[in-house]
Amino acid sequence: MKSNMNTKIFLDSGDPNVTRELLDRKIKLDGQTTNPSLVASNPKAKLLKKGQKLTSRDLINFYKEIVQEIDEILPGKPISVEVYADLKTKANEMVEQGVNMSHWARNVHIKVPANLEGLKAARELVSMGIKVNITLVFSLEQAYGVALVTKHAKRGDVFISPFVGRLDDKGLDGVDLVLKIKKLYQINQISNVLILASSIRNLQVFNFFLNQKMDLITAPKDIIADYFLKNQNFEPEKNFLQSRIALKKFDLDHLKVSNSLENLNLENQFLIDGITKFTNDWNNLL
Hints:
Blueprint: E1 8-12, H1 16-24, E2 31-33, H2 36-40, H3 43-49, H4 56-73, E3 79-82, H5 91-101, E4 108-113, H6 116-127, E5 131-137, H7 140-149, E6 158-162, H8 164-169, H9 174-187, E7 193-197, H10 203-211, E8 216-219, H11 221-229, H12 238-245, H13 269-283
Parallel strand pairs: 1-2, 1-8, 2-3, 3-4, 4-5, 5-6, 6-7, 7-8
Helix pairs in contact: 5-6, 7-9
């Protein structure tokens, strides 16, 4: 089985040195995704905190420097930059951050969470011509909401990031969700939103999405390096492949397709936990 290398591969990292390392190893990258947790884990962030207190402005400036350095390494390629959003952050606050962050590099996608306020922010940002990446997606309702608020955006300006590994960690099927989102968009003739398979934990899932012709995949350094340097002929186990291609009966009856964002069930515990983790990791540096 040959992989579909038209799928674009992004590095999931907040460290430009990791980006350089992969390029030095002759591995092609099509872009990069970042988030508050990845920025907080950057070695320089930990050094910055030693012996001093960081302000919010310090951290934002540090994040900006990281993004601009990545942009120098991957000139003009998509870089996803995430706003700071806790469970109380309103859409207008995310929009204000997003407008500022959109100028950090040449091809920025502003990441907002897939809750009600985040989707309202995405709608406003898209109306201003700003590219978005709607993250922490764990349900079909959220995926439909993404399409609803970005229906006037052109193809390539909107990414949706379903988190595969976060679901798998809890014994659920993250791959199944991504395939169902793909099917949902096909049924509703939604072609402008690109699916960015995220939170990839292993090479098997990474390679599966390549073979399923996913629009985009983001993964950490080790998985990307393993694929390109060791396992380009790697094939998923037959049972793994069959169990995911043979989707359960695809039933949209429970999904109340609506033209009103407020009528969609967007909240779930995975979303809440994801927002909480990102904000905690960021705030721990302050």
